[in-house]
Write a structure and sequence with these properties.
There is one protein chain. This protein is mainly beta. It has helices spanning about 20-30, 110-115, and strands at about 5, 10, 30, 35, 45, 55, 65-70, 75-80, 85-90, 100-105, 120-125, 140-150, 160-165, 170, 205-210, 220-225, 235-240, 245, 250, 255, 260, 265, 270-275, 280-290, 295, 300-305, 315-325, 330-335, 340-350, 355-360, 370-380. The strands form 8 sheets. Strands 20, 21, 23, 24, 26, 27, 28, 29, 30 and 31 form a 10-stranded antiparallel beta sheet that branches. The two termini are about 70 Å apart.
């Protein structure tokens, strides 16, 4: 008989289904294993004062595992550990030879195994002592939690003797799961979703999105590949006809209608376009003056397409060219006057170095019909 400890488990079942029916549904969706191995669920460990017993459990009630029954009709069991941990005895060591034991979570189901039992146990199944011992086989309707190396004449089991054998449970990779509502993951704290293999083998996980009327065609896809085994070491490939940020296409240029101050459009024309990529905006501004257009006497400004972060100090955010009716080109810089508007400085020759001077109705020349202001810029979004 194996060393055993009844851990007082219960079956987590739907109220409108029999337990047997519910287990058959589980068998379609779930592969066996321990739920939350990272959180030490069903962890096998030495006692605080080592002896010939072990303790099993995370230290918090509610450890769960999935155990597949021995036959298809038996289905798949969901087991819950209702104690913080359980103590299980280990068979006395052989005086002459070592052996290898296994620790298992085992489900008894009298209907199928005629055991006279209908509950779950954590058991230590002793191997056969030998000069080169091997572990015993895992019994039916059970999952292996650990192996224990029991030395000849040993009187204690310590951490060095225990090898973790738990595997994380998974949704059956051959099953298709449909959810008609939102999926909420750990709303009270931090959580993560991991896609791909965690067994040391490479994979190319994908997320497909279906928003069209067809049932099978994907509209867009996210593909991860080329991982190096380190955080952020892979490549993320987004496949879609267009990508938007807050309704604006990433990499797509859009028009905006700027507001002028100390400057009047009149019958002139303005072409203003921008693109936003994350927290960065790139823009172009092209103003052809008409006969009724004017440039003010003091610091004309133009509204930005998106509210920005004001550089400190007022650093240039772009360049500008002033064209005097197709004859003279003057250069300057674009300055952010506030988080919502930009203005212009004109490069002016000095005795040794060029200096910047604010644009006005006479600087760099007296403005008239067909003169142009052509600017480009880049800035950080607020």
């Amino acid at each position: 008989m194996p060393a055993t400890a009844n851990i007082n488990t219960r079956s987590i079942q739907g109220e409108d289904l029999t337990a047997a029916s519910d287990r058959l549904i589980n068998s379609v969706l779930l592969n066996e294993g321990v739920v939350n191995t990272v959180g030490n669920s069903f962890l096998v460990a030495q006692q605080s004062s080592p002896n010939m017993t072990i303790k099993v459990g995370s230290g918090t009630a509610g450890d769960r595992a999935v155990v597949v029954g021995d036959t298809a009709l038996q289905g798949t069991f969901i087991v819950e550990h209702q104690s913080t941990s359980v103590t299980v005895p280990v068979t006395t060591a052989n005086a002459s030879n070592p052996r290898v034991d296994i620790v298992v979570l085992r489900v008894y189901d009298n209907t199928f195994d005629s055991s006279g039992k209908d509950y779950s146990d954590v058991e230590v199944i002793a191997g056969s002592p030998a000069g080169s011992p091997s572990a015993p086989s895992t019994p039916a309707s059970a999952i292996k939690l650990a192996t224990i190396s029991v030395a000849a004449g040993a009187t204690t089991v310590v951490t060095a003797n225990i090898a973790d054998a738990r595997t994380e449970f998974a949704v059956d990779s051959t099953a298709s799961v449909r959810m008609d509502g939102p999926l909420t993951i750990n709303p009270a704290g931090s959580a993560a979703i991991e896609l791909g293999r965690v067994d040391g083998s490479s994979s190319t996980p994908v997320i497909d999105f279906h928003s069209g009327a067809t049932a099978v065609d994907r509209d867009s896809r996210i593909i991860a590949s080329g991982g190096t085994g380190s955080n952020t070491g892979g490549t993320l490939n987004i496949q879609a006809a267009a990508i938007q940020h807050n309704g604006v296409g990433v990499g797509t240029w859009s028009a905006w209608t700027p507001t002028l101050a100390n400057m009047a459009l009149g019958n002139g024309t303005i072409t203003a376009r921008y693109t936003q990529i994350g927290k960065t905006v790139h823009f172009t501004f092209y103003f052809i003056l008409g006969s009724t257009s004017t440039v003010g006497a003091s610091d004309p400004t133009v509204s930005l397409p998106v509210t920005g972060v004001l550089p400190t100090p007022h650093s240039p955010i772009g360049t500008v060219k002033f064209l005097d009716s197709g004859t003279i080109h003057n250069l300057g810089v674009v300055k952010m006057v506030s988080t919502t508007v930009f203005g212009f400085y004109v490069h002016k020759a000095n005795s040794t170095y060029g200096v910047a001077q604010v644009l006005s109705n006479t600087i760099p020349f007296t403005w008239t019909t067909s003169d142009t202001i052509s600017a480009i810029g880049t800035y950080e979004v607020a």
